[in-house]
Design goal:
Elements (H helix, E strand, L loop, with lengths): L11 E9 L9 H4 E9 L7 E10 L3 H4 L19 E9 L10 E5 L5 E5 L3 E3 L20 H9 L10 E5 L4 H12 L3 E6 L2 H10 L4 E4 L7 H8 L4 E6 L3 H8 L2 E9 L22 H6 L2 E4 L9 H13 L7 E5 L4 H10 L8 E5 L7
Parallel strand pairs: 8-9, 8-11, 9-10, 11-12, 12-13, 14-15
Antiparallel strand pairs: 1-2, 3-4, 3-6, 3-15, 4-5, 5-7
Bound molecules: NADP nicotinamide-adenine-dinucleotide phosphate.
The site of NADP nicotinamide-adenine-dinucleotide phosphate has 30 residues, from helix 4 and helix 10.
Length: 363
């Protein structure tokens, strides 16, 4: 039963938020595509089952960009809509039929804003994990990040085995860095693909991968780097990027190889919307060697989430997996943080992109 709740105070709050101003043409441009708005929200505006949540921390996710397109893969935003963002924050006011009390920290689809008016059923009590920071619920233990990596490595296809060669694309990012560490924990040789020397150094020196491929390297071709780092071919590809990088990797896939399609971030800047997805033109290689390719959406594996959480915690405690966090500060920084995810390279982030909504808020 929902207990009736009182508002934390009877005043109004000023909500600052990012809304979609125009549909991006190609690469997302914060200056052209979004607008910063403020509005007053009164506690008395809340419906009985609504609550007002003060945002603490927001997650940068690739799906936010695809939702800006008209024919979006995850459902489209309308012009003027608040940008979606998963996050957590504190309930500061609650209607009488809200399931959450004032003062509770909740997680859910808060949006790129400082205060969110949301249905109480649309959020759940924020989970913290032993020995981890509260941000783990968005990163290592988050559905769209660590658990996506776990699902793609262990549940979608035959998992990597000791002695096999695994290649992870987008390997210095949130999902990719966890997928690479989990694959390494199976005993496989793991090679990561990332943009720029700094990220490649991170893969080899921090994550202890067996090799790194810099797809932005102008001196060595992708083919040369793949041959050098994967001399025995590739048994398992965890792909976050798609396009020409996937195509090049497919040419080295081994017999009984598995290709797990997690995402295709190289295609999100308008190609999905216009039906011009690039590649893979090398897909016949799958037939030639008897390899398989399978895509997944983590939502299709919800029943395995409890198991994945336990598994991830086991690897974390054993020191096999961790998440580097990149935290931008201030709601103003939200679209710039998002843009960084699509420009990548040396100006980009490593690990999980997070936005701490205000500098004086708890982590
Ligand atoms: N299947 C699912 O259920 C599911 C759930 C969540 C996320 N995903 C997918 O997982 C992937 C990674 O998401 P994330 O949140 O972890 O983001 P992320 O990897 O932290 O950030 C994106 C990274 O992609 C790379 N990138 C951007 N544009 C690129 C391009 N044109 N070519 C090659 N690399 C490019 C950049 O790294 P570089 O500097 O290395 O270029 C950037 O850091 C995305 O494809 C996303 O859609 C799938």
């Amino acid at each position: 039963m929902c207990a009736p709740e009182q508002s934390a105070d009877d005043g109004t709050v000023t909500n600052s938020k990012w809304v979609l101003k125009a549909r991006p043409q190609g690469i997302f441009d914060p200056k052209k595509d979004v607008a910063f708005k403020t509005e007053s929200i009164s506690n008395t505006d809340l419906a009985d089952d609504e609550m007002l949540v003060e945002s603490f921390m927001l997650s940068g996710d690739a799906f936010i960009r695809t939702m800006m397109d008209e024919e979006a893969y995850h459902g489209a935003l309308s012009l003027g809509d608040t940008l979606p963002a998963i996050g957590y924050g504190k309930v500061v006011a609650a209607g009488p039929k809200s399931c959450h009390k004032v003062g509770t920290v909740v997680s859910g689809m808060i949006g790129a804003q400082t205060y969110a008016k949301i249905k109480s059923g649309g959020a759940f009590r924020h989970i913290t994990f032993p020995f981890m920071t509260p941000t783990a619920s968005l990163g290592l233990m988050g559905l769209t990040t660590g658990l996506t990596a776990y699902t793609g490595v262990f549940y979608v296809s035959r998992r990597p085995r000791k002695g096999e060669t695994v290649v992870v694309t987008g390997a210095a990012g949130a999902v990719g860095s966890v997928a690479a560490q989990l694959a390494k924990a199976t005993g496989a040789r793991v090679v990561g693909v990332a943009g720029g020397p700094k990220k490649c150094q991170y893969l080899v020196e921090e994550l202890k991968l067996d090799g790194a491929i810099d797809y932005k390297n102008s001196e060595k071709t992708l083919e040369e780097q793949i041959t050098a780092t994967c001399p025995d071919g590739i048994d398992f590809i965890y792909d976050n990027v798609g396009g020409s990088i996937l195509d090049r990797l497919l040419s080295k896939i081994n017999s009984n190889g598995r290709v797990v399609i997690c995402g295709a971030i190289s295609q999100y800047s308008g190609n999905l919307n216009k039906g011009k997805v690039e590649g893979p033109s090398n897909y016949l290689k799958l037939a030639e060697v008897g390899a398989e390719m399978k895509g997944f959406n983590v939502m299709q594996y919800m029943a395995r989430v409890p198991l994945a959480l336990c598994g991830m915690f086991y690897y974390f405690i054993r020191g096999k997996v961790r998440m580097t966090e990149h935290i931008e500060v201030g709601i103003q920084s939200f679209p710039h943080a998002l843009a960084k995810m699509f420009s990548g390279g040396s100006n980009g982030h490593i690990g999980k992109m997070l936005v701490k909504v205000r500098s004086n808020l708890p982590k």
